[in-house]
Amino acid sequence: MNLNDLRNNAYSNAKKDGEEIKAQAQDKPIGEGFKKFGAAAAAEVLKEQGLLKVLVQEPEEEGKESVYRRVAKFFLLIGEDEAAKILPHLSDKQIEKIIPELASIRSVSKEEATQILEEFQTLLEDAKKSGGVETAREMLTKAYGKERAEQMLQKSMIEPQPKPFEYLEGEETEKIQLLLKDENVGVKSLVLSYLPPKQAAAVINSMNDDDKKEVVLRLAKMEAVSPEILKRVDKAMKEKSRTITTEKTENIDGRNALAQILKKMDSGAEADILKSLSAEDPDLGQDLKKRLFTQEDVIASDDKFIQETLREFSDEEVAHLIAAKPDDFRNKILDNISHGRRTEVLEQEGLLKPMKRSECERITAYFVGILRRAYEDGKLIIKGRNDEIFV
Fold it and tell me: What is the DSSP letter of 387?
């Protein structure tokens, strides 16, 4: 008798004596799950994940059902058509073990049918889970033991390759600019395409207009690059980057340094120098006047003058004046108005938010301008600047 005869006889006997089995299969959702999953995949689940481990046969424990018999019962539960889809995916040795069990089964109890179907459903769900190293380790450990599983993993795992040009991430814009300076537009575009967008944007912005235009156009039209070319460019850029060093330079603001020096001079000398500079360079003179009177000067200004000045400002204007300012500036202003007005101003600030930055800057410039002119006219005392000439 060949395998086909064994199959036919097994199913004939099962149909004759196991009407209960058919009913169990129809009541369970496993059929639908099996159909969606596919016969080939289902066969792999049976072979690899627990119901069917035929190649390594272990001695049966006394009183424990053969794994082949359990698979045979599962085939009977899902029906001839579905079982027939799985059998071609199994080896002849596996089929030879299962067919006699099929032929000898007369019935499957309702409880056992439920248990078998639920067992396969669990395997089915597990098979749908995501893979990964840990999943592979767990499966191999169950099949071959921990030591053998680790050996197989070490042999099969491929060391992850580093991302091209990742050694440039976080580098200063100046260094990347020097690195790409003498390279053609193709290399520049390739390197920039692998950098974080924000970093790449900073490098492009540092280029001259012609280079910037070429690189942007090349990036827009860039096509796939062969792994070999990418590898060679990556290696060359890595070696080149090791030879490039950038010296950090500290920016010196000459105008601000001059303003700080003038602040330490007596007001007469300061006025003479400003007058001379303004005559030679009006823009420089105006800029220095602004630098000579800053928010720190407002904070150090005489409270009485501040109070008189704020009386000319509306609550809404004061709210714009203190908006987004440091706490010491805000406190200087709020401490020089009445408690009731302070409450009104803070309420106005809350209602007006968000405020236009340009409006806040306009009102601040107007307020500071009043104080600066008063200082230049000798009408305002600023602690640390001209308080030594007053008693």
Answer: G
Whether a cis peptide bond, with omega within 30° of 0, leads into 354 is yes
CB-CB contact of 13 with 100 (8 Å): no
Distance of alpha carbon 330 from alpha carbon 25, whole angstroms: 78
pTM of the model: 0.36
Q: Which DSSP letter does residue 266 get?
A: -
- How confident is the prediction for the chain on average, in pLDDT? 76
Q: Which helix (H) or strand (E) holds 81?
A: helix 80-86
Radius of gyration (Cα) for the chain, nearest Å? 42
All residues at 6 or more sequence positions from 73 whose CB lies less than 8 Å from its CB, including other chains: 21, 105, 108, 112, 113, 116
**Taking Cα atoms as reference points, which of 290, 281, 291, 297 lies closest to residue 261?**
291
Q: Which two tokens stand for residue 382?
A: 């600023």
Query: Does position 337 have pLDDT exceeding 90, yes or no?
Result: yes
Q: Which of 18, 21, 11 is nearest to 103 (CA)?
A: 11
Judged by phi (left if over 0) then psi (alpha if -120 to 50, else beta), residue 56 lies in beta
Reference 12, options 108, 97, 80; nearest CA is 80
How many Cβ atoms sit within 10 Å of the Cβ of residue 47? 18
The letter for the amino acid at 132 is: G
Residue 212 in this model has a pLDDT that exceeds 80? yes
pLDDT band at 67 (very low <50, low <70, confident <90, very high): confident
Residue 52 in tokens: 């069917």
Mean pLDDT of 189-217: 88
The whole-angstrom separation of Cα 237 and Cα 229 is: 12
Instruction: Note whether 113 and 21 are within 8 A (CB).
Output: yes
Q: Which tokens go with 255?
A: 């105008």
| pLDDT (0 to 100) of residue 158 | 55
- 284 or 346, which is more confident? 346
DSSP-derived letter for residue 161 is: P
42 in Cβ contact with 34 (< 8 Å): yes
The 8-class DSSP code of residue 61 comes to P
